[in-house]
Structure formats: C-alpha cells, structure tokens
Design goal:
Mean pLDDT: 92
CATH class of the largest domain: Alpha Beta
Radius of gyration: 22 Å
Number of helices: 7
Number of strands: 14
CATH superfamily of the largest domain: Dipeptide transport protein
Distance between the termini: 34 Å
Strand order of the largest sheet: 4-3-2-5-8-9-10
Low-confidence stretches: 336-340
Strand content: 15-25%
CATH architecture of the largest domain: 3-Layer(aba) Sandwich
Length: about 350
C-alpha cells in the first residue's frame, strides 16, 4: 500500500478565457436544516429543504462571481429520489446553469462538460461514516469508503476524481464534523453552517449569518485560486469498503480468494475510476444487509407471521416456475423520468 493515500499538487489555473466553476451539491449539509426528512423526496419537509438548498447555492454563486468567476455550472450530487432536480430552477440565480443531459451520468466521475473546468465547489455536504455528523455517511447508508487505507468523505471523493485532470476543490460547506474530516484539505474555504448534535439533530446558526459566510467564503475561494491544490491518488490503489449497520458484508467471511476482514472488502487497481466503479458494485452487495432490518420490522408487525408465510410460498413458487421452465425474467427498465434532456445527476 502507498505510504500516503494521495499526492497534493500545486495548481496553475489557465484563466485567460475566464474562470469556470462547477458546483456539486448535496442536501444534508444545508444551513437552517436540522431534520433529516428535509432532504428526502416525498416528505412534508422536502419542499422546505429545496428552498434551503437554493438559498445556500445562490449565496455561493453570488460569492463566486464576486470573486472573479465568469461562469458557474451546477450538478446534482444528492439523489433524493426526485425525478426532477432537487435544486428548483425557478429559485436559482439565473447567472448559473444546471447541467442537464440526454443520457445518465455519474456526478462524481463523469466530468459533466467537455469544456475545461477551473475549480470545483461543493455545497451542502456531510461528514463521513463514523464521524457522528448530521446525516453522516459516505455514498449511502452504512458504507465507509477507504482509499489506500484512508477513510474518505464524499468531498474527498470529488477531489480525487477531479484530481485526475489536476483541478482542485476550492470551497465546501456543511456541519462542524465535516470541517474536522476535511483537515486533509487545508487550502479550501470551508463554511460551517451548523453544529451536529447527533446524526438526526443539529444546532443551527442564524440563517443571515451563515449565508453571509457562504458568500464571503466562496468569494475568497476564487480570489485565492492560485493557492488551491489538486489531489491525485497514489498507485497502486487499495480500494476498500467497510460496511456498518444497516449494511453488511459478513456473508463474505470465509469465502476463498476474497480479501475480506472485519467487515471490509479490499481490491487493488491502478485507476481511480476503476476503484470507484468497483466500490459502487460492492455497495450493491453490502446493502443487501438492509433486508435483515426489513425482516425485523415484519416480525414485529401483528401480521408478521402471515407476511413471512406468504414470502416463503412465493419463494418456493418462483423456484418451481424456474425449474419447470415457466419463469420469464422481467426486462430491466431504467428508473425515473427518461427522454431528452432529463438527466441531472444522482437520483
């Protein structure tokens, strides 16, 4: 394993044709937000969360332009389940442009425009799994991602992705726990918008004060662009996924040839995109652990025995149909809204 997880490189911006900044936003690290349901599509508080998101992003946009940015693009990194962008276009500062594509794309690793990006800002982010921040996690529930033995935040994941082309992350916002996680990136302008008291509660700063800091921090980030650093992963890359409840990888224990220990699966590659893609595939396996919680919920219901009996009957019938040649596997269909110009990042 490399002695350090990544290298820090000086950045030489090519700003002769302007400064183009990409904002990648999440939705758990917003100012004025202390209820987790505000970032889940379909809840009563989600519309309020959308308003908080737009207000934070608009403060950052204003600061970026004040600092010298000439163009601001926005990509959705949250994935609330909303088929439309979490960021409402009618609330967005008209100087910025949301990235909408005809085909699905990965916000973290599909560079979202062919033109050069000079810097990346991340807004509304959260701390990593195990940091005890507000809604702290990495990628999804119960997942801790490690690169070369170092547990990373999603902000660092963004930085390692853009570090492939030498572009720095210059600004971030979120809670106080994420501020501690990002000691690895001392050059960024970081704005703490709330103090986490648990994964589902926080002490909030006054909105006017917090948003003023968002604007000022974004302005400084662009003004100090030449001091920014890019993060490039060191190779070979030891990519690991550590699962904690409600996720689990314990079903891998004892399987020959699998690099598994202490709820952690590790593989080696020389390419950061390959590392990311491999980790995403393992996430799919680890989240099978969610089903054990579903079983607990069903057992506690008054009709739990009937539900489990129906499940066992359906399981047997599916087996009988498969073995008898009667079962036809359904054709996979893409989730969410499809069609031209409808993909905005994570869903």
């Amino acid at each position: 394993m490399p002695s350090t997880p990544w290298s820090i490189e000086d950045y030489q911006p090519q700003a002769d044709d302007g400064i183009r900044v990409l904002i990648i936003h999440d939705m758990e690290g917003l100012s004025g937000q202390d209820d987790p349901s505000s970032f889940d599509f379909g809840t009563d508080l989600y519309p309020m969360g959308q308003e908080l998101l737009a207000a934070d992003i608009n403060a950052v946009i204003d600061g970026l332009f004040a600092g010298g940015a000439t163009e601001v693009l926005i990509a959705d990194g949250h994935g609330s389940g909303n088929p439309e962008p979490d960021l409402r276009a009618d609330l967005l500062d008209p100087r910025a442009r949301q990235i909408i594509r005809d085909e699905p794309f990965d916000t973290y690793f599909d560079l979202p425009e062919s033109e050069a990006i000079d810097a990346v800002a991340v807004v509304g982010m959260h701390a990593k799994t195990g940091s005890r921040g507000f809604a702290s996690h990495t990628f999804t529930l119960g997942i801790d991602l490690l690169i070369n033995g170092h547990s990373i935040t999603e902000t660092e994941l963004v930085a390692l992705s853009w570090g492939r082309v030498g572009v720095p992350v210059i600004f971030a916002s979120g809670d106080d726990r994420l501020a501690g996680d990002l000691a690895t990136m001392p050059w960024i302008e970081y704005v703490t918008v709330k103090e986490a008291t648990a994964a589902d509660s926080a002490n909030l700063r006054p909105l006017i004060e917090g948003r003023a800091d968002l604007r000022a921090g974004a302005q400084r980030a662009v003004e100090n662009l030449t001091s920014a650093k890019a993060m490039r992963v060191n190779t070979p890359i030891f990519a690991s996924l550590h699962a904690v409840p409600p996720a689990s990888l314990r079903f891998l224990d004892g399987i020959p040839g699998v690099e598994y220990e202490d709820d952690t699966l590790t593989f080696v590659t020389d390419d950061m995109r390959a590392a990311y893609d491999g980790l995403v595939e393992i996430v799919g396996a680890a989240t099978v652990g969610y089903l054990s919680l579903l079983q607990e919920v069903v057992r506690d219901r008054p009709d739990g025995d009937e539900i489990m009996a129906a499940f066992r009957a359906a399981l047997s019938q599916r087996w009988f149909d498969q073995e008898s040649g009667r079962y036809e596997r359904p054709t996979p269909t893409a989730g969410g809204t499809s069609g031209p110009g409808r993909y905005h990042g994570y869903r």
